[in-house]
Design goal:
Layout: H1 2-30, H2 34-59, H3 63-94, H4 98-101
Helix pairs in contact: 1-2, 2-3
């Protein structure tokens, strides 16, 4: 009985993570401006990976594997927003038509 519950929880988290990541991919194709694309992908990235890692952790039998998944999750939570921020800064500083595409507030 416990294995059936474990399988169902694993399937729910894995499918939920895949749906969230698919929404991020859809956002990549749907939006026109690079900063909007970046926002859609980075927001879905964190939640989708969290759900996938929780699902994989539930299905893992060994505690060391769960620890590795947790460390991977922590690393991705640190690295993904940092990379997204650097890409957004690059786009904001190198795009000469940024004020045409969106409202730009100057200091």
């Amino acid at each position: 009985m416990i294995e059936v519950v474990r399988f169902i929880l694993t399937a729910v988290f894995l499918l939920g993570g895949l749906v969230v990541l698919a929404a991020g991919v859809l956002g990549q194709y749907r939006f026109r401006i690079a900063l909007n694309r970046l926002h859609a992908s980075s927001m879905c990235d964190s939640l989708g990976i969290l759900a996938l890692m929780i699902g994989l952790s539930i299905s893992a039998a060994d505690g060391w594997i769960v620890l590795k998944f947790a460390l991977t999750m922590i690393f991705l939570w640190i690295a993904s927003p940092t990379a997204g921020h650097l890409i957004a800064r690059l786009e904001a500083t190198t795009n000469p038509r940024l004020d045409r595409d969106m409202e730009v507030l100057s200091k």
